[in-house]
C-alpha cells in the first residue's frame, strides 16, 4: 500500500507551510506499509521553542485552509516537540536538539521518502 493522493497533497501543504516559517530539514516518509493508523510522517525542525511554535501555527493554518482538521495535538505547551495528527498525515515539528536525540529518520529509514515540491527547502541551515 502507498500513501493516498490526498495524504500526499496534505503533506505538500504542511511541508510548504513549515518551509515558509524557515523550518529546517523537512522530510516526509510514506509509512502506510508499516502503520495502519496513518499514511505519512512529516518531520521538520527549528532552532528555538519560539520558532517551533511559529512553524506549528503556520502548518495548522495552511492545513485548515486545505480543509483538514487535526484529530489530536500534543506538546504545544512545551514547544520542543509538537505532534499534529491529521489522520492521513502526522506532522512532527521538533526543536533541533530533540530531533537529533530522538532521530525519527533513523526509525523510519526503511520507509520510502515522499518527494516534496521544489519550493520546499528540506536542507540544513
UniProtKB/TrEMBL annotation:
Keyword flag GTP-binding: no
General function of this protein: Functions as a ribosomal silencing factor. Interacts with ribosomal protein uL14 (rplN), blocking formation of intersubunit bridge B8. Prevents association of the 30S and 50S ribosomal subunits and the formation of functional ribosomes, thus repressing translation.
Main localization of the protein described in the UniProt heading: cytoplasm
SUPFAM superfamilies attached to this UniProt entry: Nucleotidyltransferase
Protein's UniProt name: Ribosomal silencing factor RsfS
Compartment(s) of residence: Cytoplasm
Family, similarity comment: Belongs to the Iojap/RsfS family.
Pfam name, any one: RsfS
Gene name as annotated: rsfS
Record keywords, A-Z: Cytoplasm, Repressor, Translation regulation
Complex and partners: Interacts with ribosomal protein uL14 (rplN).
HAMAP family: Iojap_RsfS
Amino acid at each position: 500500500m502507498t500513501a493516498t493522493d490526498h495524504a500526499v497533497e496534505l503533506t505538500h501543504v504542511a511541508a510548504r507551510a513549515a518551509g515558509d516559517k524557515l523550518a529546517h530539514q523537512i522530510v516526509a516518509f510514506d509509512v502506510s506499509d508499516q502503520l495502519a493508523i496513518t499514511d505519512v510522517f512529516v518531520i521538520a525542525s527549528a532552532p528555538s521553542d519560539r520558532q517551533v511554535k511559529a512553524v506549528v501555527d503556520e502548518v495548522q493554518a495552511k492545513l485548515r485552509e486545505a480543509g483538514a482538521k487535526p484529530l489530536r495535538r500534543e506538546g504545544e505547551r512545551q514547544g520542543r516537540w509538537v505532534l499534529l495528527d491529521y489522520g492521513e498525515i502526522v506532522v512532527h515539528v521538533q526543536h533541533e536538539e530533540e530531533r537529533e536525540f530522538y532521530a525519527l529518520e533513523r526509525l523510519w529509514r526503511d520507509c520510502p521518502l515522499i518527494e516534496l515540491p521544489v519550493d520546499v527547502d528540506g536542507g540544513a541551515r
